Amino acid sequence: MHCVWCHMKIIPEVEWHTFFFPEKPRKLCQKCETGLEKIDSIACEMCGRPSTKDEENPTICSDCTRWQQDPSWEDILVFNRSVYHYNPLLQEMITKWKYRGDYHICQSFEEAVEAAFKQYFVKTHPDAILVPIPLSAERLQERAFNQARVLADLLPYQSANALKRIHGEKQAKKTRQERIASVNPFVLEAPIKKNVILIDDIYTTGTTLRHAAKVLKQQGCPKVCSFTLAR
Amino acid sequence: MRGDWNLIVISVIIGVVAVTLNFLFIYAIFAIWLYLLYQYKRIKFPHLILMIIACFISSLYYYPINIQDNMSLKQNSVIEGVILSEVEETTTSTSFIFQEKKSEQKLSVTYFKDPKYHSDQTTSWKTGATCSLQGQVVSPPISKNPGQFNYRKHLKKQAINYQLTLGSVTDLECENSSVRQYFYNLRKDIKTDIETKISSFSSAWIQALLLGQDNLIEDADIELFQRWNLSHLLAISGLHVGLISGFIYFIFTKTGMLTREKAYFVLIVLLLIYPFLSGGSPSVWRAVLMSVLGIIVLSNNHKIGLTDIISIVFLLCLIINKEIIFQLGFQFSFIVTLAILLSRKFLMRSNKKLEIIFRISFISTVSVLPLQLAHFYFINPLAILLNLFIVPYFTLIVMPLLFVLFISSYVTPFISTLIDTSFELIHQFVLTLIRGIDDIFYYPWVIGEIPFGYFIPYYSFLIFLFIALNKNKKSNIIFPGILLVGLMIWIACRPYLNPYGTVTMLDVGQGDAIVIELPYRKGVVLIDAAGTMQNDFTTPSDRTYKQIIKPFLYSKGIGKIDAVILSHADHDHIGSVSYLIKEFAVQNIITSPYFIPPEPLSQILEEEKQTITAIVAGQQVTIDNQAFKIIHPDSNHYSKNDNSLVILSNIGGLTWLFTGDISKEVEINLTHLYPNLTVDVLKVAHHGSNSSSVKDFLNKVKPDISLISVGENNRYNHPHKEVMDRLLKKSNIIYRTDLQGAIQYTFKDNGEQGTFSTFLP
User: Fold this and answer.
1) CB-based contacts of B477: which residues, under 8 Å, 6+ apart?
2) What is the distance between the alpha carbons of residues A138 and A165, in angstroms, rounded to a whole number?
3) Interchain contact, B345 vs A15, CB within 8 Å
4) What residue ranges are annotated as transmembrane (chain B) (predicted)?
5) CB contact, 8 Å: B471 with chain A?
6) Is A16's CB within 8 Å of B37's CB?
7) A7 CA to chain B: closest CA distance, Å?
8) Is the ipTM of this complex over 0.90?
């Protein structure tokens, strides 16, 4: 077995707990595995921003306070949780994955994504519906797969393609101000009356997710949260 | 398959255990395990099939076949065959393993050298030689006492069912030899070389640590190392092989003699020769094969995990030598190495050297503790601490010094003398230090036999403890830790909770040794402790003590003896006392006032500041309500035998009379002094000699059961026929140690009668 990312051979380290019952085969080598930093403790209850210090009790960060103060965005997105810190290694991996079409890279995230989803959502939201953030038709044509959809497929819940995206500029190329002010790119295809968990690869400012949430809520969705790979 | 070889090894072990111990339920556990592994996608289908095949093959491979006793070599006929093993020579004997050609039966052959007669005949006895030999084929001796080492079983584990002692050198004629003999000769040459070039002290240690022969190191030091769990330093293992290959590699590459690749190649060749030069014990093979595989893997950039390497080596060893799996050295070596490998997270977490050594020492000790107890019945808790200092001392000082000494003795004799002297100086000092520590701090914890059933909870708790230690979760460490300590305490406390007491007449050959254990371990009393002589019949030997008395007491978990009652001062009744008081806490020795301890016992009694109480007829010894009444002697009879203490006691609902070696005069005298004396059990006086056990005495005491402690084929022809005839008329049952081994009476503390049992059926 080779590491999905660096292609080095993986030698499973047998320890006491794996001597009689081995672990599932690893996708990443030890080095890459430790390069990805899982979010263990949260600084902001709302956006799931990782905390740098251990002792901190989660509060609401200033970004989220700003969103909450705006009546038109208040409580649109109840909360967001993410799997990893958006560090340089992950950034590189996501870039290769979605822009260069290296589909297999998502294997490296599988286990952590499943575990994090189980931790944050399975008990508290037993019958929510997953809605992956869609790509516009042109973009989907370009990339051949929707990374949010791929992530949603890893999870044990039903997902629905409730949204459609109108082609626009890449979010990644805009500033925060531009993002917040931009026109909502989403159109609802089918209204959902159940709780929704939005799935996306990255949470940067939260604008995309809030745009999507707003569309859903306008058509009677009771509660929208989100789950992303990186924060 | 990478990273999964341990699963194959587990499958193989399951197969072996199932058929050799006849634990068929293990197959069910195996099936459940496979199902879970497959269900949870931990293994793929081909792996599953491979594991089933591995288990199946090992079950077949180890299926116990009852070897037919069809050896056509019953009586003094000529046996044709091949010498299989190395021909091992000591100063007094030559021995080897021989395989008969037709039946492929293996024989352990020994020749005791005749000191008066030197012959070169033995030089044709070589490994691989085809020989014809003549002699009496016999079954190896079995153990006749509880706790005693079973030599027949030991040989059987090596697939040897018979042994033969050569009467004279002319009984064996050989020709040819195999390639292996070449290496053995080389080893012999090196040995003679070392012995001439280096002082005897240093050469003894070089031979032990580099050539795997520790017979020049004094027995006292070997035993010292055993007591302190340091024996692993004397047996060549991973430590030695690793260091030696490190030295060689360093010399080759640093001097520019060879490139790294060539050095690897040379090292592999040397390593594969090494087991033949060093006696080829299981630990050498394990270490060498692991190093060779490791080097191959390293030099090819082939990455294989260490657990895979040790697993493959394990399988290789079983293929090369099927019986090796039953050898204690092999089991210790693999279990300890594996436990250390699997615990490397726990080891690596510390960066203090001393702490790491402590952790290794801890892991090694606890991972083989049940095996250690099952074979040696005791642990020395302080040994971990001593290992902490002695292991680095051997690694950093002894091994490098000896290696350099060995090389320099061939290259620069002047420097070699210098190193020789300094090594002797340093090592003598350290040995003296260890001996001093042994004198003051040796507190063995004698736990006793541990039933196999306790292995399962022990190893379960231990694995959970090791998992927790690897993960460093404090809360998870405490629980299995407490369970483990609790289990050990429970095992150690079992004798104190046991409502049964025993009286055991050990088969010590021609002599007496009777152990009385009161219920709930309220007291342990010994009546006599026989010793034996060496083959010359005049030098005292500790054989009886080491092979029979001590193992029995240890197997029962006895480390403290409340009283040793010595009937009289003959060697066959007191010969083991001098060893006994050194290793056991003997509270009191009880004798008659006419007992004069011979040299050197009297001196040792004084050195050990042993309490001795003299007692005469009419007095009694009481150990926790158990009274031993002395009914003889009341005066000096001016004969050792007739001054024997005669002890009357009521044990487990029966009246017992222990008579020492009294003669008929004393017997008759007793019938006059105690006209109402009747007993249930009589220890027949003087091993059944016709000088005692007269009719009038037997008629009076009316023993229901007679016990005779007597040696097999003893030179006095005890028990005498007329005594047996007399006893047969009076007694319902006669037990004899020569025919039945140890005789044991087991009773409960409620005063009801117990039952007799014999060690041999």
Assistant:
1) B465, B468, B469
2) 10
3) yes
4) 7-36, 48-65, 233-252, 264-297, 304-321, 327-344, 356-378, 390-413, 451-470, 477-497
5) yes
6) no
7) 14
8) no
> Residue B683: enclosing H or E segment and its boundaries?
strand B681-683
Which tokens sit at A85?
């810190």
**What CATH class has A37-230?**
alpha beta
Read off the pLDDT of residues B680-718 as tens digits, 9 standing for 90 and up: 999 999 999 999 999 999 999 999 999 999 999 898 999
Residue contact B307–A16, C-beta within 8 A: no
Q: Report residues of chain A scoring pLDDT below 70.
A: 53-56, 168-172, 179-181
Hey, is the C-beta of A220 within 8 angstroms of any chain B C-beta?
no
CA distance linking residue B277 with residue B244, whole number of Å: 13
The structure's pTM equals 0.84
C-alpha to C-alpha distance for B759 and B574, rounded to whole angstroms = 23
Q: Where are the domains of chain A?
A: 1-35, 37-230
With an 8 Å Cβ cutoff, are B7 and A22 in contact?
A: yes
Residue segments in chain B with a per-residue pLDDT below the cut of 70: 1-3, 66-76, 115-122, 302
- Helix or strand (DSSP H, E) at A208: helix A207-218
Residues B194-233 as b or e (16 or more Cβ within 10 Å = b): beebbeebbbbbbbbbbbbbbeebeeebbebbebbbbbbb
Question: Which residues in chain B touch residue A23, judged by CB atoms under 8 angstroms apart?
Answer: 42
For the stretch A111-133, pLDDT in tens is 889 989 998 888 888 888 999 99
Of chain A residues 10-69, which have a CB less than 8 A from chain B?
Answer: 11-17, 19-24
Give me the pLDDT at residue A191, please: 83
**Helix ranges, B62-198 (H):** 151-156, 179-197
Taking each helix axis as running N to C, give the angle between helix B200-211 and helix B413-441, from 0 to 180 degrees, rounded to the nearest 10.
80
Kindly determine whether residue B470 and residue A15, on different chains, have CB atoms separated by under 8 Å: yes
* Whole-number Å distance between alpha carbons of B512 and B53: 55
